Amino acid sequence: MALHGVTSQLTWDVVAEFNSGTLTGQSITSFTFDKFDMDKLSLFFILSMDDDIRLELDFNASYTSGG
Predict the structure, then answer these.
(1) What per-residue confidence (pLDDT) applies to 67?
(2) Which of 15-19, 36-40, 42-46 has the highest mean pLDDT?
(3) Which of 7, 17, 26, 36 could, after both became Cys, cross-link 2 (CB 3.0–4.6 A)?
């Protein structure tokens, strides 16, 4: 994955189901700011911030025959 000008490998946990020509599912990954050489925000109104970033992708795809 490329993020913030840095490319690094990520592992995604994927749960998917294929039924009647439709693929649905969810994929999730997490990483820390330093994996992509990013600094955590430092603003006066932010008291604290976790170092973990979590991305979730819900997907839904369908297949139809061009017959």
Answers:
(1) 59
(2) 15-19
(3) 7
Q: In which band, very low, low, confident or very high, does the pLDDT at 4 lie, cut at 50, 70 and 90? A: confident
Neighbouring-strand partners of residue 57: 27
- Three-state SS for the chain is CEECCEECCCCCEEEEEEECCEEEEEEEEEEEHHHHCCCCCCCCCCCCCCCEEEEEEEEEEECCCCC
Q: Among 34, 39, 35, 33, which residue's Cα sits nearest to residue 10? A: 35
Cβ–Cβ < 8 Å for 1, 40: no
**Residues in the chain, total:** 67
pTM: predicted TM-score of the whole model, two decimal places: 0.70
Residues with Cβ within 8 Å of residue 60, at least 6 apart in sequence: 22, 23, 24
